[in-house]
Amino acid sequence: MKHKLTESESEALLPQIRQVLETGKPWEDKNLHHPVKAIVEAILTIPGMERKDLGEDARYGIEGFDANGWQWDWWQHFRHGGKEYTLSGSGYYGGHAFHVSD
Description:
The chain is of the alpha+beta class. Helices cover 25% and strands 28% of the residues. Strands 1, 2, 3, 4, 5 and 6 form a six-stranded antiparallel beta sheet that branches. Strand 4 and strand 5 form a beta hairpin.
């Protein structure tokens, strides 16, 4: 299984994430499909980005991670610059989204 995005994949993704951080406008790409670990690790390379602690609600012992199990939808919660953000995806259908958390 792939655990790291390629340089070109990171170069395509990270500007989209930074745009959300700067503007608050949500980003979504329904055709993009990266493994969870790889996309999360890429986003964590942004200075100041950290996983949000969900405490006992974290799934699979992964800080800030949540999933709905059999439907393969997942969410990774982050903090950056005093705000909270959510990266989501579908392990079945693919696609990713990043937005200011509700």
